[in-house]
């Protein structure tokens, strides 16, 4: 009878453990399925704008034989879907500038080059002129600042040690060896090797590399940003630069951007809800950028339920020409400052927006690079940083199948170990003879 009782109790215990195992696996399965389902939903929201077809023009319509056509570079990238066109107009006559515009399918960019070179407003238009949405930014300033106390952030140092260098005084030349042109990818690089007539030396340069893809994917260099057909990836590198002898062993580097957006029916005072804002969010994992669990962005307000634009980046930059996790330093974004749209007069944005300046909101964004104890810019001396500029909501980070499987294994193995331990303890306890239990009292 005792043996039968023990066998029954043992069987009941094993059955309980099996039920527990089933429940634990069910919970694990639901968690993993939930993550995968969230990924599919987010992916559906991001990818519904479909695959686009790319084409590119350099200095479109510039009269043959005119000398000013060789004094700078304007690159117009069209990204066509079945219903609309996203235009990425990159201008390097003066300040590096991006005009991002969404138009009806088939709209063309028309530039009056004589008026454009002379700085006349309204010299760049789309034909037909109606645009569905526009946004623009201009890299106006390279900052250098003296950080005597290694405080890292530009707004904490003595203002007398902060120097701004106007990017219109750089000469930007196209680096053709980096160019790629296809229906799926357009890539080009622009390099500046002198400032205001002063050369940086044989190894000194500022390089801007632009990539536009026809569909979603990840970048090929750290921090492997996720792009889609509505975005343009920008990689900027500063190497061994000396700007008007402002560089010291404790100098750090920063960038200044002027951002503009056209606000429908803008009248009177500008409200906070109409302004560009900084957003910092946590990401799902660090698979693509190890150790970085944040995403920072500059976002415009949403108009007409969907129309918005953004600049987005991981808050990490690199001090090596070949990017490596060990060479990473922080990226710092500061409070945005209201600006007058009249300051657009040194960029392509004036050529496009000048006749509609009353409908614009302009703000300045300053960004700097560095981490305490990194040895300042002079230690390497190099900084590389990547970000996305795009239309619509930014692409969401997703969890890869590898991470999902790792999560499943990570939850499943401990569950199996616990179940085996419980079965072992129940078995040992129930198989102990009653006489041994009595002797143990």
TrEMBL record:
Taxonomy, superkingdom: Eukaryota
Where is the protein situated, by its record's location annotation?
Answer: Lysosome membrane
Q: Name one GO cellular component term.
A: lysosomal membrane
Task: List the InterPro entries.
Answer: NCU-G1
Q: Which residue ranges does UniProt annotate as crossing the membrane?
A: 12-38, 401-426
| Principal subcellular localization | membrane
Q: How does it sit in the membrane?
A: Single-pass type I membrane protein
Output the Pfam families linked to this UniProt entry: NCU-G1 (PF15065)
**Record keywords:** Glycoprotein, Lysosome, Membrane, Signal, Transmembrane, Transmembrane helix
**What does the protein in this record do?**
Required to protect lysosomal transporter MFSD1 from lysosomal proteolysis and for MFSD1 lysosomal localization.
How it assembles, according to the record, is:
Interacts (via lumenal domain) with lysosomal protein MFSD1; the interaction starts while both proteins are still in the endoplasmic reticulum and is required for stabilization of MFSD1 in lysosomes but has no direct effect on its targeting to lysosomes or transporter activity.
| PANTHER family the record matches | GLYCOSYLATED LYSOSOMAL MEMBRANE PROTEIN
**Family of the protein in this entry:** Belongs to the GLMP family.
Name of the protein this chain belongs to: Glycosylated lysosomal membrane protein
């Amino acid at each position: 009878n005792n043996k039968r009782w023990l066998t029954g109790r043992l069987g009941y215990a094993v059955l309980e453990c099996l039920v527990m195992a089933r429940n634990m696996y069910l919970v694990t399965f639901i968690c993993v399925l939930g993550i995968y389902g969230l990924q599919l939903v987010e992916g559906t929201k991001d990818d519904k704008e479909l695959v686009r077809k790319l084409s590119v023009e350099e200095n479109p319509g510039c009269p043959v034989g005119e000398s000013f056509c060789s004094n700078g570079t304007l690159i117009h990238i069209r990204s066509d879907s079945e219903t609309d066109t996203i235009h990425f107009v990159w201008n390097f006559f003066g300040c590096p500038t991006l005009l991002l515009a969404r138009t009806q399918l088939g709209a063309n960019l028309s530039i009056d080059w004589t008026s454009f070179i002379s700085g006349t407003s309204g010299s760049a238009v789309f034909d037909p002129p109606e645009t569905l949405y526009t946004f623009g930014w201009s890299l106006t300033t390279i900052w250098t600042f003296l950080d005597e106390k290694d405080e890292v952030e530009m707004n904490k140092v003595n203002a007398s040690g902060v120097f701004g260098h106007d990017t219109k005084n750089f000469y930007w030349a196209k680096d053709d060896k980096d160019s790629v042109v296809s229906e799926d990818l357009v890539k080009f690089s622009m390099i500046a090797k002198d400032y205001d007539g002063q050369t940086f030396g044989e190894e000194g340069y500022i390089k801007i590399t632009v990539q536009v893809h026809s569909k979603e994917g990840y970048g090929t260099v750290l921090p492997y940003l996720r792009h889609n057909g509505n975005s343009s990836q920008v990689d900027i590198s500063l190497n061994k630069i000396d700007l008007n002898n402002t560089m010291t062993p404790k100098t750090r580097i920063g960038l200044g951007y002027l951002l503009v957006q056209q606000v429908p029916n803008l009248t009177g005072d500008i409200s906070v809800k109409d302004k560009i804002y900084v957003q910092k969010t946590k990401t799902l994992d660090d698979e693509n950028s190890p150790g970085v669990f944040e995403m920072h962005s500059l976002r415009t307000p949403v108009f007409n339920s969907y129309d918005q634009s953004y600049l987005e980046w991981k808050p990490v930059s690199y001090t090596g020409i070949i990017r490596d996790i060990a060479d990473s330093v922080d990226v710092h974004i500061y409070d945005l400052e209201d600006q007058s749209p009249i300051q657009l007069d040194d960029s392509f944005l004036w050529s496009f927006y000048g006749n509609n300046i009353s409908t614009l909101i302009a703000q300045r964004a300053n960004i700097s690079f560095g981490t305490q104890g990194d040895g300042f810019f002079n230690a390497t001396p190099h900084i590389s940083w990547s970000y996305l500029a795009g239309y619509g909501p930014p692409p969401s980070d997703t969890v890869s199948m590898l991470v999902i499987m790792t999560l499943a294994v990570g939850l499943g193995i401990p569950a199996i170990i616990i179940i085996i331990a419980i079965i072992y303890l129940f078995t040992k306890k129930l198989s102990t003879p009653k006489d041994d239990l009595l002797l143990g009292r």
